[in-house]
Amino acid sequence: MTDADTVHMTLEEAVALARRVLIAHGCDEINAAAVAANMAAAERDTARSHGLFRLPNHVRHLQEGAANGTARPRLGREPFAPLRARRGYSSPTGFRRSSSS
Fold it and tell me: What pTM was estimated for this model as a whole?
């Protein structure tokens, strides 16, 4: 990759971009915001392989039905599987929803 291939943006711009793309491909606002914030945080922390790099894969999973962009995590009854994402984005969405409660 050359400097000509590099796009610089603020974290807020990265969140907004990812959020718009995810919503355009089937995520609702809650899931899109959580996943976009998680991607931007990875970019901020220089874990780029977990940042915007993954956006095309998220889009493909939404298009193929491998991910449910409107899923709501639910607590399970099993002792070692407390969060069921139902083909959604369990980690960022579950964290965002539980930490804001």
Answer: 0.73
